[in-house]
Design brief:
The chain has 2 domains: 13-165, Methylamine Dehydrogenase, Chain H; 168-284 and 305-366, YVTN repeat-like/Quinoprotein amine dehydrogenase (Methylamine Dehydrogenase, Chain H), CATH 2.130.10.10. It has 1 helix and 28 strands. The protein has one helix spanning 376-380, and strands at 7-13, 17-22, 30-36, 43-51, 56-65, 68-74, 81-88, 91-98, 112-116, 124-129, 137-142, 145-152, 157-165, 172-177, 184-189, 192-197, 202-208, 212-217, 224-229, 233-238, 247-249, 256-261, 268-273, 278-282, 306-310, 326-329, 332-345, 350-364.
């Protein structure tokens, strides 16, 4: 199924960017952070807000960042706090920052650096915050190790609590923190996915022989994860039964780089890749399913789960994120699942962030959040 996009473009970034993150803790507004990736210029972090009244993107703050930003995550319980992974000519680093009070001034004051995660000796890949509210722990991953930190933002301190070594595993690339269990994460390598127990820093079950680019836990159902892979598009797995995936969704013609569940309707999944395509899927699975998908060649297949494919882009797409805030409009509530697409405009040297409203639906407030009132598959296809 093909579909065009009705996008809103933000042209405020001067340099190319690779990172964007939704600010989940910003109650009552749809806000996100974007970080630039310039080798020679001083980089920037933009605080961008979607204004539903004017249907436009507004820059609420622009902050200078000393190095190229390769990973950016917003703190889930404090809208002014975020982390970055960055590189200079001398190596990689990671820090946690705080956005200063703006008070409506036109020139944004400098970011406040709360603390650095400076125990790494390898190439830092990402920082993970536990996604469900306040937690005094933070995870950082480099190409050989996983660190669990105890953080205290008020005292501007971070201390290593546990460290796990990848041993003979090839090249850690990133991971995802289990929203159902703060003692468990899934970490991906060039050729495998391993679940880790953060109490012992030991590996448990694993998926082998696949080149993973991204992983996301199902936000509603325990034990279910989704992976983005080079050769197979995206796959849905039950961590208790890893012989076969629950579903294969091979909807990309090149590397699949990112995958995210909708936080409210977990059957709705976004994937993005270097084939310049964003796919919207409806993949219904549950922990009470009879079992994983049959091996290749099985005659039993469900109906096509691809709801829409957005292909009107020229460049690779490296990131997508979900927005869970509900925007009130009189007696209706609007819930948006957004895709952010970034590319470098060589003529204007600007980054354009196109927000694609791939899922828009309305429910009367008296019926919200009764999701049984509407079928997400019907809603998403509109």
């Amino acid at each position: 199924m093909q579909g065009g996009s009705s996008g809103i473009v933000y042209g405020g970034l001067k340099y190319q960017a690779r990172c964007i993150a939704d600010v989940r803790a910003a109650a009552g507004s749809t806000t996100f952070l974007a970080g630039t990736l310039s080798l020679k210029e001083e980089n920037e972090v933009h605080l961008i807000r979607f204004s539903p009244a004017e249907s436009e993107l507004v820059c609420d703050g622009l902050f200078y960042h000393p190095n190229e930003i390769w990973d950016l995550k917003s703190c889930p319980f404090d809208h002014r706090v975020f982390s970055t992974v960055y590189t200079s000519g001398e190596g990689y680093g990671a820090s946690v920052w705080k956005i200063p009070e703006l008070h409506g001034q036109s020139n944004s004051p400098p970011l406040e650096q709360l603390f650095t995660l400076d125990e790494h000796t390898g190439k830092i890949r990402c920082v993970l915050w536990w996604p469900l509210g306040k937690h005094d722990k933070l995870i950082s991953i480099d190409d050989r190790n996983i660190f669990l930190w105890n953080i205290d933002a008020s005292n501007k301190s971070a201390k290593v609590m546990q460290k796990g070594s990848a041993d003979m595993l090839p090249n850690l690339r990133g991971g995802s923190w289990d929203p159902h269990d703060h003692n468990s994460i899934a970490a991906i390598t060039d050729s495998s996915l391993h679940c880790w127990d953060l109490r012992s820093m030991k590996k448990s079950n694993a998926i082998e022989h696949a080149h993973f680019r991204d992983v996301d836990y199902n936000p509603k159902k325990q034990h279910l994860i989704t992976t983005a892979e080079d050769e197979f598009g995206i796959r849905l797995w039950d961590l208790r039964m890893l012989k076969y995936p629950l579903k294969n969704l091979p909807g990309h013609s090149h590397w699949t780089w990112a995958v995210r569940h909708n936080p409210e309707h977990d059957q709705l999944i976004l994937s993005a890749g270097t084939d310049s395509t964003v796919n919207l899927w409806f993949a219904k699975v549950g922990t009470d399913d009879s079992g994983p998908e049959s091996p290749p060649g099985s005659p039993t297949r469900e109906e096509e789960p691809l709801l829409n494919s957005y292909t009107d882009y020229e460049d690779s797409i490296y990131g997508c994120f979900r927005i869970s805030q509900a925007l009130l409009a009189e007696k209706m509530k609007l819930h948006v699942l957004s895709v952010v697409r970034a590319h470098n405009s060589t003529s204007l040297l600007k980054l354009l962030l196109a927000i694609l409203y791939t899922v828009l639906w309305y429910m009367e407030l008296m019926r919200w959040p009764d999701s049984t009132a509407c079928d997400p598959r019907t809603i998403a296809s509109q």
